[in-house]
Amino acid sequence: MRYNPEVLRSFVCLLLLLLFNPLDAQQIKSLAVLDFEARGIASHEAASLTDWLRSDIVKISTVPVVERREMLSILREQDLQLTGCVSDECVVKIGQILGVSHILAGSIGRVGSSFSIVSRTIDVETGRIVDSVKRKYRGNIDGLYDEMTPIAWELLGKGAEYKRLQREQREAAKRAQFGAERRRKAAERARLQEQKRGERELAEQQKGKQETVTTGTDDLAAAIFSIGGAMVLFSNNEGVQALGYLLVIWGAVMALFS
Q: Given a cut of 70, is residue 154 above it in pLDDT?
């Protein structure tokens, strides 16, 4: 019996999808997110990080999520508290009281400067853990907010989509940075061209002024020379002729050094 490779490949992909994407939105009818257990951090910090995770789940999914305030109100009516409810049995009981199909619980721990986030999603009807996600982070505690977002996508079976969106955002940021760099370089080239143009215009103006001064000096030297020559040629007075010679010499010197 011969197998079609394409059919076999499609069957394997479908099987993997069913096995590793258990939190498809169609399977979760409603969801409650319990405050994660604080291990080595303050309880209010764990609650704040859980709120961030809950908000991300609401943002990226159409699955109804029970609000924390409503959840606490219902539990108070049943004389129950979330504090100390860490076992799967307790979590399932709370899920049954809240009337949700799935419930999300987990813990946030700290050892030294390293943090761990462990989350699990439990089917309330069967009590079975249908998915779990864990992450390790090293740094300041406020950096955990950035870790909660990808966890929300993974828990909803959209980890690949999240990675794609992150990749597109990085590429868009690179394109924007490249465009900004090109505009900066273009502006710098324009500034240098404007500076060179201004320098050329200033040089031309200075050259024109120098030529004007030179021309004026040459004209003055020629006039003095001519007057002196006329005094020498057309006057019989020795004093006038002597002054004429001086004017001729003066005009010649001016013409020589102008």
A: yes
Tokens of 56: 């991300």
The candidate with the shortest Cα–Cα distance to 63, out of 97, 36, 23, is 23
Distance in angstroms (rounded) separating the CA atoms of residues 112 and 115: 8
Nearest to 38 by CA among 49, 53, 28: 49
User: For residue 32, with 0-12 CB atoms within 10 Å meaning exposed, 13-18 middle and 19 or more buried, which class applies?
Assistant: buried
pTM of the model: 0.58
Write down the number of H helices and E strands in the chain. 7, 5
Greatest Cα pair distance in the chain: 140
> Which residues, in sequence order, are CB contacts of 154 under 8 Å at separation 6+?
133, 162
CB 215 within 8 A of CB 206: no
| pLDDT, position 2 | 52
78-111 pLDDT tens trace: 877 767 777 888 889 999 999 999 999 999 999 9
93 within 8 A of 105, measured Cβ to Cβ: no
163-192 as b/e: b if 16+ CB within 10 A: eeeeeeeeeeeeeeeeeeeeeeeeeeeeee
CA distance 78 to 71: 11
